[in-house]
Every structure is written in C-alpha cells, then in structure tokens.
Amino acid sequence: MNPITLFEQWFSEEKSQNNRKLSNACCLSTVGLDGYPNARFVSLKEIVEDSFVVTGSLSSRKGREIENHKKAALTFWWTSSERQVRIQGDVTKISQALAKTYFEQRNRDSKIVAATFTQGEEIQSISQLKEQFEAQKTELENREIKLPENWSGISIQPIRIEFMEFKNSRLHERILYQHVENRWKSTLLQP
Predict the structure, then answer these.
(1) pTM of the entire structure?
(2) How far is it, in rounded angstroms, from Cα 185 to Cα 82?
(3) In which residues is FMN bound (predicted)?
C-alpha cells in the first residue's frame, strides 16, 4: 500500500472516532539554529501532491530554522485509535496563492493575531498583549485583514513514514516506508 493512502485512511478513522478537531494536531520538529532539535505543535492543513502542509509565521523561530535547514519531521499521536505516525522529509515553501487561501480560512481573531504580532518575540506583560490585541480588533473592525508578508506555509515531502499501531500485548505493529529510487519500500519493525 502507498503510505500516503494509508495515512489518509488512518487519519479518516481517527477523525470518525474522535469528534474533536485535534486529529489535525501534530508535532513539527526542526533543526534548531543552535543545532538542537526543536519541536512544537501545529495543525496539518492538508496533503497536497503527497506532501504534508502546515502554515504559520515564517519569521518565527520555526520559520528561521526551516530556512536554515530545509528538513523537518511531523509526529502524529491519535489517542482514540492508539496510533502514531512519524514523517521525515524535505521542506519547501508553499505558493503565495495557496498561503492566501489558507489565511482566508482562518477565523478573524487568528488573522488579527497573525497581522499584529511577531510570533515568539518577547513581551512585557500579558495585559499589554491583550490591550494591543483589543486595540487592533477595534481598528480593523470593518476592514479586510490582508495576508501578512511573513505568513505562509511549508510543504513537507516525505522520505520516511513510520506507522505504529499500539497493542495491549505490547507487540505493537510497526511498518516503515522509505522513499528510495522513486518508489516506496516497506519494512516491518520490532515493537
């Protein structure tokens, strides 16, 4: 089976078992600017041309890390189905048109936050942050919020995808797919 098809099947099964939108949540890991791994949770937008798309501020730490080292990993943990998927791959920036489409799908408050703040920068206080947000919300009340220059997304073209299904017996079923010579090669792994 093609691992992208298997991922989509597992993803669909998790969404049907779990009525919350957390099925899209995944851990994005990058190589830090200091050489240490860095991880944070993001939301998978969709799979486009067999690549996994996530969005956000490219001037953030994750954006700078990806610009410096165009490789990343995604890890999904699905509680309802007790499955894990690990993806490693090469990163490219998505098109401006696709970024605009994703930005327009965000709720208004998310757009205001993206347009107002520089993700990951230091602040003086939470109350100052809230005041600035409310001021921007009032100022932008009847105006369209345009895509910020630093907001886009990345596409992760997988080179490895590992699926693990947890079992009560502890004999977890693991299969690793590796993209080698333009085809997927699968290997069974011990638990």
Answers:
(1) 0.91
(2) 24
(3) 40-45, 61-62, 84, 174
Provide the b/e sequence for 32-46 (b: ≥16 CB within 10 Å): beeeeeeeeebebbe
In the block, which residue shows the tokens 């993806």?
A: 87
61-93: pLDDT as tens digits: 999 999 999 999 999 999 989 999 999 999 999
Instruction: Name the token pair of 186.
Output: 């699968």
Please indicate if the annotation marks 130 as binding a ligand: no
What are the angstrom distances between the C-alpha of 88 and each of 36, 133, 139, 140? 16, 36, 42, 39
The verdict on whether residue 40 carries a ligand-binding annotation is yes
Measured in degrees and rounded to the nearest 5, phi and psi for residue 2 equal -70, 130
74 is in an annotated binding site: no
Euclidean distance between the first and final Cα of the chain, in Å? 21
Go through the domains of the chain in sequence order and give each one's CATH number.
3-105+149-189 (2.30.110.10)
